[in-house]
Amino acid sequence: MALPADYHMHTPLCRHAKGEPVEYAARALELNLPEIGFSDHSPVEHDDLDDWRMLSSELTKYVEKVEHARDTYPTLPIRLGLEVDFIPGHEPWIKKMAQNHDWDYFIGSVHYISDKWNFDNPQHIKEWDKRSVDEVWSEYFDLLTRAAASGLFQIIGHPDLPKKFGHYPKRDCSNLYSTFLTACEATHTCIELNTAGLRKDCKEIYPNIEFLELARSHNVQISFGSDAHAPQEVGLNLSEAVNLAKKCGYHSYCTFIRLEKVMVNL
């Protein structure tokens, strides 16, 4: 099976990934990936928010690392992106950052809810015991919908992330999904099939099949990402993600060049 472009990979600048972009690119060539994109965790407006993203002062260094990979492997299309946290009130910061370099795409993600609780961080997993799982999912999707509606992102990352540690809602979330997907449809924002979920407690691609079938019914387009934090994770389980996409009725996926969408057949 021909693998799709892998648009979600990190660098050591985020402080929890290993391997330089040139090493990720070398692995991509071994796998015959048609295209890759780096989307490391972007800076936020205040560098003291957490310790798992690059600092504002490192953004230029990040771009240089990706450019070095491009120069080293000129036959491999390598896109420049960021994984950007959607935090209400930070929209001006995101817009300013978008003007600083020739980005190909931004992946919008939600990692924080309820007054800066980083709900997918293993260091904060005990906080789940104090929370209503249904309320967490509801708040998460409220923020994710706002992210999609903002038009600031080309892709929404790992869209059902709260399942990471196996916390599933008891309520029917189809309305939450539909509201989010309606926002994606309105802003032409695609969602990511992220295979990292297969390496987490949930043992499932983000998003699940029911979610993805609903996305297809809303005409929401897709991209693919391994969420690689080491060179050996590049392209992992992308074949399973392609099979899932086809099962849900998808025949193409999105790539981006300087923020312009390019559709590719599966």
Rg, nearest Å:
17 Å
**What is the N-to-C succession of helices and strands?**
HEHEHEEEHEHEHEHEE
Helix content: 25-40%
CATH structural class = Alpha Beta
Please state roughly what percent of the residues sit in beta strands, choosing from under 5%, 5-15%, 15-25%, 25-35%, 35-45% or over 45%.
Answer: 15-25%
Number of helices: 7
Question: How is the biggest beta sheet arranged?
Answer: 6 strands, parallel
Question: Averaging pLDDT over every residue, what do you get?
Answer: 97
Under the CATH scheme, the architecture is Alpha-Beta Barrel
What is the CATH topology descriptor?
TIM Barrel
Distance N to C terminus: 10 Å
When the domains are counted, the total is 1
Short description:
The chain has 266 residues and is α/β, with parallel strands linked by helices. The chain has helices spanning 21-30, 59-72, 91-98, 133-150, 174-187, 209-217, 238-247; strands spanning 36-41, 78-85, 105-109, 112-113, 117-118, 155-156, 190-194, 222-225, 252-257, 260-265. It has one domain (12-265): TIM Barrel.
Task: Report on the architecture of this protein.
The chain has helices spanning 21-30, 59-72, 91-98, 133-150, 174-187, 209-217, 238-247, and strands at residues 36-41, 78-85, 105-109, 112-113, 117-118, 155-156, 190-194, 222-225, 252-257, 260-265. Helix 1 packs parallel to helix 2 (59-72) and helix 4 runs parallel beside helix 5 (174-187). It contains seven helices and ten strands. The protein has a six-stranded parallel beta sheet with strand order 1-2-3-6-7-8. The chain has a two-stranded antiparallel sheet with strand order 4-5. It has a two-stranded antiparallel ribbon with strand order 9-10. The radius of gyration is 17 Å and the shape is globular. It has a single domain, classed as Metal-dependent hydrolases (TIM Barrel), CATH 3.20.20. The protein is α/β, with parallel strands linked by helices and 266 residues long.
